[in-house]
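The following block was generated as part of the benchmark described in Methods. Ligand: iron/sulfur cluster.
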Amino acid sequence: MSSSIRHARMHLAERPAPGPVRNARPAVLVSGRDAPANGQTLRGIDDLVAAGLLRADAGPALAEVAERYAIAITPAMAALIDPADGGDPIARQFVPDARELNAMPEDLADPIGDEAHSPVEGIVHRYPDRALIKMLHACPVYCRFCFRREMVGPGGKALAGAAFDQAMAYLAGKAGIWEVIITGGDPFMLSARRIEVLMQALAGMPHIKVVRWHTRVPMVDPDRVTPRLVKALTSGGKAVYVGIHANHPREFSPAAKAAISLLAEAGIALISQSVLLKGINADAPTLAALMRAFVENRVQPYYLHHPDLAPGTAHFRLGIAEGQAIMRQLRGHLSGLAQPTYVLDLPGGHGKVPIGPDFLMPQADGRHLVSDRNGSVHIYPPDAPTGPAS
Ligand code: SF4
């Protein structure tokens, strides 16, 4: 997610017609070797019923949701869910909901439009100095709000063979690319060997200085973060950043903290990504706890995404004004270290823009009215002091 993580995003030039998608995924998919090794991941309605995460009578109503959008809940995430809490914020992220079939006029199958910027398979090149590499389309979990939900799912193969070579050749030939962002799906689903192959290929491109990974794995499947994986990530001699996607402070389990620590101890710079989600984290106390948890675990808060217009996700969305009001509360009560940038990814592939609350109001005389954290307004520069000169 990402992105969004969210991880980096998928785009289309035009809004595709909604419809069944499970057979319409692109060719860049996860290989059997890279598929989740943990057989206990919950992957269907029956699994969720058996685990007590859905009532048995909910199954028929959700069959169409399950047919349309992939389901996966790792043991790590399932363990955090309180089945007795109908509003559990972990469950809401992963347990399917009949509202996912509600089509809204504004929904977009590809909410932020990467396809128009994909010169070769597996590459999205929208900005001059950076490009995305989409290595696979599988994830350890399938988030119900995912902006790429029409594209991600289990099965298939990773970007490999001639397609991988072509993607690397494209990057090698573009001297202006300074940073590559590795995304998917979730690229931490790749084996350490495949990550090493990628890092070695990038090592031969001196113009690429920074490699950024976007992943949910440290939170949702932390056992995948091993010393072997960390060694592979750092094997290319580049500055490595990992964007970690989490949406609720309860995701910081002891195992997740240990996984994050493994990355931090290796000198990998860690940044956060979260999605502002109604019913999960769209209130100042929850977001404050989430951002503090990131900072306490050496993850620099980076992006808080306004929810995208992904199909069947309207029940997670809130208005931009509501998001700004929450951000204003954070500004007043949270350390500057823990302030994410609230961003909107514009549909159509026009990129991200910060949409945080505006504290400045320009005045005709060139000065500004500035609202403080309590909402009081001040003129800047202030009026000259009046009274007798000394
Ligand atoms: S389903 Fe996968 S790509 Fe989508 S938000 Fe979740 S982890 Fe990221």
